[in-house]
Amino acid sequence: MALSKPVRTIWDIPREERFAPGHTMCQGCGAAIIMRHLTKVIGKDAIIVQATGCVEVTTTAFPRTSWLNPWLHLAFENAGAGASGVEAALKALKRKGVIDPNRKIKVVAIAGDGGTFDIGLQSLSGMLERGHNVMYVVYDNEAYMNTGIQRSGATPLGAWTTTTPVGKKMRGELRPKKDLIGIALAHRIPYIATASPAYPTDMVEKLRKAYETEGPSLVHIISPCTPGWRIRNEDTIKVARLAVLTGMWVLLEIVNGKPRVTVKVPKRKPVREYLKLQGRFRHLTDEEIARIQKMVDEYVEEINRWVGEQAIGPVEE
Amino acid sequence: MSLTLEKKEEKKEGLKQVIGRRIAATGNYAAALAVRDADIDVAAIYPITPQVQIAEKIAEFVADGELDAEVIHVEGEHSALSAVVAAAATGARAFTATSSQGLEYMHEILYIASSLRQPVVMALATRALSAPINIWNDYADAFGMRETGWIMLFSENVQEVYDNLVQAFRIAEHPDVLLPVVVTLDGYILSHTVEPLEPLGREEVLSFAPKRPRGYRPVLDPDYPITVGTLGTPHWYYEAKYQQVVALRESKRVIEEAGREFGKKYGREYGLIEKYMMDDAELAFVSLGATASLVKAAVDRLRKEGVKAGMIKIRVLRPFPADEIAEALENVEAWATLNRAISYGAAIEEPLFTEIAAALAVRGIVKPMASFVHGMGGRDIFVREIVEMYKKLDEIRRSGRRVKRTYFWGVKGHDPEEDQAM
Lengths: 317, 422
Ligand SMILES: Cc1ncc(C[n+]2csc(CCOP(=O)(O)OP(=O)(O)O)c2C)c(N)n1
Ligand code: SF4
Ligand SMILES: [Mg+2]
Fold this sequence. Notes:
The complex is a heterodimer.
Chain A: H1 30-42, E1 46-50, H2 54-59, E2 71-73, H3 79-95, E3 106-112, H4 114-118, H5 121-129, E4 134-140, H6 180-186, E5 191-195, H7 200-212, E6 217-222, H8 226-229, H9 236-245, E7 252-255, E8 258-261, H10 271-275, H11 286-307
Parallel strand pairs in A: 1-2, 1-3, 3-4, 4-6, 5-6
Antiparallel strand pairs in A: 5-7, 7-8
Helix pairs in contact in A: 1-7, 3-5
Chain B: E1 8-12, E2 15-18, E3 23-25, H1 27-37, E4 42-44, H2 52-63, E5 70-72, H3 77-89, E6 94-98, H4 100-105, H5 107-115, E7 121-126, H6 140-143, E8 151-154, H7 158-173, E9 181-186, E10 195-197, H8 202-208, E11 227-228, H9 237-266, E12 273-276, E13 283-288, H10 291-304, E14 309-314, E15 316-318, H11 322-329, E16 334-339, H12 351-361, E17 369-373, H13 383-399, E18 407-408, H14 418-421
Parallel strand pairs in B: 4-5, 4-6, 6-7, 7-9, 8-9, 13-14, 13-16, 16-17, 17-18
Antiparallel strand pairs in B: 1-2, 2-3, 3-10, 8-15, 12-14
Helix pairs in contact in B: 1-2, 1-7, 3-5, 7-9, 10-13, 11-12
């Protein structure tokens, strides 16, 4: 059974484990935590379509699997299209009486940032634009991790990756992250949210709402990656929390175009606290950090304007 | 086949409905009719010349309530094939159509469709590949698909487009097969040409190609969850690949059985190959698609001149009918191929030839042989040119000389014999 009542405390999260252990994800992998909670929310009657990436390869080495749901992986760039096909088939087969028309079977697409922001963007756009009843979950570890930490359109400004190395002339990623939420908004879909595994009730509640949404929904979840971000295995949640507390990652929910900050941060921490825990930002100078701080300040201001309140407060050292 | 148009009842683009079962239709319309009669559940459609009317007609059938299917207006062919593979895995009868650049764009998923053993059916209006961009017929797209693990049926005329598609659903979904099937129709030459057509109607098609046959179970079923599209490590990948080899090999039996039963029921029998005037033939050409019709016309002309010419049409390109072709060519004195595809840089640049030569060689059959390419990018092939090719083959037979290169016939300002000296 999928989770049907609102999640207010940790006790509302289902106890049943539906993401089997024995997979080969790294210790401290943020995506593993996300998958565990996602499968708790969607329950048995959901068909998962997954893009190529870390989660896919680490959970399905034949003949083993971590998935208790029907699960399909086609390729890297087509989770949106595959999910569209499953959803269309369910619709037709229900109409034709092959599948009980009263049975709710949800289609869930899962992809990494590379499979979403970059190579899978067209397929995602098609799926959103056509209004398929699919919930799309992006676990965003801000690089192509499965191939060994190459930059993607989701890699943040200044971050080291193997393809944005720190050299004499260039020092990490040159551009800020692509605005995926803005892209999803442009498709005018009914439900969009951002989440962080450091806020499990907020994350699970958003996954639940995405599941309940009729039509396309998208949940964008920050997913710390221990080798990729060069963090300690035990710091995953700490980093995921600091992303929120510094305003680098704002926990948003946009229902039918109306935005809301679900976890307010009255006093923001300086971005330095988030950056200093991660080896991928180790090379940053004070000047470079100041530049990132300024970018985040502007972003926070923009969010506050958009939601119509001071949801994220000023930086307090 | 002659057409007697009796009373016109209605006239739509591409179709003249006449009294009785015989109508006149383009290849594209025939494809859409076959899909309608097969009662597909899901179609993913995307426009590309010259298959675009298939997409349009399916949309029309659905809009008019003549077909109850979900039409996914995908944003590209990569997604088209991805979506129908996923739909098939969910238990739907699923279809898409494409051509040329569209086929290339979905190429990655061609392999995934067959490897995941999903019985999707696709129509391919054959068309030249860019560059230069060219919307006319040749078989470069289809021949590029040979390695992808699909069953490939070629059509010679509009009726065959319909009949092949009907059989395609039965073959693809057969529990012993479970492989995707592509049915070709020559771009423009069949896709846009009106010919007589006897559609079977939904009742007949569904009795011939019943949906969800014995042993059917959707792959993606919440009551029986399995993981599809796993990581195949070196421990298991090879075994999966070998299973594909066997499945494609064994699909032959199901294809033949479908063709035979189709003949019994509807009077039009289909085999893996078709032999034309082969009983006493001394010179034989092998060809496929609508090009086969031209070769047949050349055979007729040569027979009138007293030349013992014959031809073999390949209907099933994959799995390749090696035994049947070897048997058919065993007693000819010389053979050749005529194809509209090039395998750049290959040992022999006409790709059909290499397959047949290999099939004969392993059976110890060696005789004078040659290969001809013509008709690239919609260049007309005239019957008189094929007659000349037969005469070239006759000369090769008589002289006993070995021809080591493909003859590129009809290239402006080029004598194809020059290539032999190179
Ligand atoms: C068409 C195609 N291009 C490239 C690849 C190689 N590839 C596989 S996984 C991957 C990275 C996936 O990155 P992301 O979506 O961010 O997921 P992550 O591995 O970070 O979880 C890449 C580049 C591929 N499988 N297919
Ligand atoms: S590389 Fe990163 S995303 Fe991939 S399994 Fe390890 S921690 Fe998770
Ligand atoms: Mg990633």
